Amino acid sequence: MKLRRVLALGAVAAISALTLAACGNKSGASSHKGVLNLSTTAEMPGLDTSKVTDNSSLTALSNTQEGIYRIGKNSKPENALATKTTESKDGLHWTFNLRKNTKWSNGDKVTAKDFVYSWRRTNDPKTASQYAYLFDGVKNADAIQNKKADVKSLGVKAVGDYKLEVTLEKPIPYFKLLLGFPIFFPQDQKVVDKYGSKYGMSANKQVYNGPFKVEGWTGTNTKWKWVKNNSYWDKSAVKTNTINFQVVKEGNTALNLYNSGKIDRTQLQGSQVANYKNNKDYTYFQGSTSAYLELNEEKVPAFKNQKIRQALSLALDRKQLVNNVLEDGSKAATGLIPTKLTKNPKTGADFANDSKVADTTDHNLAKAKQLLKEGEKEAGISSLNFTLLADDTSGTKQNSEFLQSQFEKLPGVKVSLQNVPFKNRLTKSANGDFDAVITLWGADYNDPYTYSSLFTSDNSQNNGKWKNSEYDTLIQNSANKDANDKQKRYDDLVNAEKILTKDVGIVPLYWGTASGSGPMLQKSYVKGVIYNSAGVNFNYKNVEVK
């Protein structure tokens, strides 16, 4: 979930004796039935369906808006606005019969035309959607985004108010999963036109057709709520009246709020995990998250040198990072794509194991020093100074400091830290305003392509501007000529991953947890939350607080 569906890094936090004593005292029954209280580590950047890229905003849209499908248990697409789906034998033509008499929260009808408008707006280059690349495979989407075709030629058509026809250029194996992702949801053109550039920048400049509505979010504040949407077609299934959110960046603060009954779930960080893993409220949400370092090759010419990139990667002791700093169940990454996402169609082997390149992410300071010396000579420099951009949460700061200490073990390397609010980091990353940046990417769907496509030469998410023509070709083959051959497609993606890892297109850090996944405490009276490791993690439609 990308863009950055870049999530906030986990934190390291000490736990006081007072906090431990409070553990689990208020887990039996809720004193706020019908109200769920949650915290988040980052501000919410926006609610523009075409432009959101972060976890907080995507989660909000997924629970306050609705598309063709809603993603249910085990990442299964379930009918939402669709009542019937017809797919051609070649997988290129789809027809969706839509639910009648559904409404936006302002009273407007939700129709097939709202999907046509939304998809065209997202693909229109004027919108500058960073998630438009997900439409790759929809007829003319790529041509439209590259200004080679008119936006009206996009392969989506409304047949009356309640029938939507979609034409693809190639089969998309995960198409149904995409249709449950917020970037494919409808939009009310009347509302977009009314608010213009302010659309989705506050709660009252958006309309909602999902289970909840956002209230109290001004665009900059750190508290807001979702309230039950009485205009929702399936409102009888919504059992919770209000979900309150507050931004809490400090791990200890969040834990204290949980123990005092003021929030109903908290993510455990650092040494909190060991202290609470036997608590009755403890739960672990397996994530499909990859944390990595992007090196800006356009801003820092030295990063164009492969040996310098390799030196930085080999200087990192990833096991120390996950075991002594994160301490939250994360695993040292050996590449971009995490374990347990997908398997080899023929052998059943895990993708991460098939794509692993030996000796590329193992800690080897001596070799790192040798490569740095050779790389600096090739680049014509005698030292390396750069700034590491990251979020401003307490845990992210400590993680940044760890990376800084590791890199500065290399002779002549000096790293400065720049910790900024999450929203600012997203903007800086997208604008290329960084030397190096810590990024997390959560899978938008259960397929390696959700990661692999990020680092093609022309992908807007490729903020470091790494380029490799062979990598591009393999990714293109996986999505085109090999799309219907499961094994060939799988092999394309494995070989592409090997190129990215060997060439150090990114510096892998760890796999596993981030905001929205990993070790947590959750009150026992919270029922009915649906969690999926890929896509938008939490579906709150049927949540109950008893």
Features:
546 residues, alpha+beta, four-stranded mixed β-sheet, 17 helices, Peptide/Ni-bd, signal, transport, SBP_5_dom, Peptide ABC transporter substrate-binding protein
Q: Can you describe this structure?
A:
The chain is about 30% helix and about 20% strand. The protein has 17 helices and 23 strands. The strands form seven sheets. It has a six-stranded mixed sheet. Strands 1-10-9-8 form a four-stranded mixed sheet, with helices on one face. Strands 4-5-7-6 form a four-stranded antiparallel sheet, with helices on one face. The longest helix is centred in the C-terminal third of the chain and has 18 residues, at about 485-505. It is of the alpha+beta class. The model is unreliable at about 1-25 (pLDDT under 50). It has helices at about 15-20, 55-65, 110-125, 140-145, 175-180, 190-195, 250-260, 270-275, 305-315, 320-325, 350-355, 365-380, 395-405, 420-430, 450, 470-480, 485-505; strands at about 35-40, 70, 75-80, 80-85, 95-100, 155-160, 165, 210-215, 225-230, 240-245, 265, 280-285, 290-295, 330, 385-390, 415-420, 435-440, 505-510, 520, 525, 530, 540, 545.
